[in-house]
Fold this protein.
Amino acid sequence: MAGARKARTYCISLDDDPMIYKIVQEIVQLPALPFVSGAKLLERAASYQPVVVFVDIHLGTNETGLAVLPQLREIWRHTPILVMTSDDRTELIGQSLSLGANDFVKKPLRPAEVRARVQARIFEMAQREHESCFQIADVFCDRTRRLVTGPSGKRSLSESEWQLFSCLAQAQGMRIAKRDLKGKIWGDVAVSDNAVDRKLSSVRQALKDVGGQVQISTKYGQGVSLEVSGT
Amino acid sequence: MMIKSEAIESLRGLFDEPAEASHFLDELIRIFDEAGAETLAAMHATLAKKDTATLARLAHKLKGISRNLGAEPLGNRCASLEDKATSSTFDEVAREVEAIAAEFSASSSELRETYYKGA
């Protein structure tokens, strides 16, 4: 399991201009952790959980902030990332957004505009995070991260494990036949019963690891369901 | 005037207390002087190596630093060098670097004389 992330009381600024992080922290009224290299930021990103991230496009050497955007988005799925640049090329806006940024601001930074954009994006991402999570008994489930969290810890699921778990969760305790599960998850692709059993076993183990009340129940010939123990 | 006062006022507007604003501006002016001088030195070194691609990137950096504090003429000269560094003749580029050095010096003086409080 990943170590605990640092508390969310700061923002991150990736820029080789030494003034920017100072300006940014006054604008958003949060301490800013300054990084000048995208590679260095990527090395440490997983241990941070910032409120908002500012990424400059041109980073002095041959590095560009755009190159690290997809990885940063992967790490901070619910954190607003704003690209900032003094480059006038309008195509950079579309490029930044398609690589994972939530918004784009021009330099020199205009405080009122930056503050308004940051607030809007924080609200938007918080809503998205809220919508992507659901709870079954004492187990919290995060669709975006494919993460299940219970009293004993967290486990992340693979894409197909998550789909399987998600199908069972949607059925709300009703049994689903294995052939129907196969159809829902793999469609027309031929998948053996053994392969389904292995996936079910992995999800069963994950639920056991997180120590919650949710478990997978299999009844021979009838199918599979999610059960909440004690109900 | 080398410095656009609106940029300075916008930065001052981040603070309720004038003393805090002065302290902040002083800090930015010190960074402007240090980072600007460093970038200019790097530009001269790069010019000696005739590495125009790096020179364009350094001009971009100095443009950003300048515009943070409203040093528009300096920012504009840097923008022009950023655009033309790889397509102009070496002499043109060298002249432009000298013009940027002079503009930097003038901007720094104006920032020190008009806005630096030593807070």
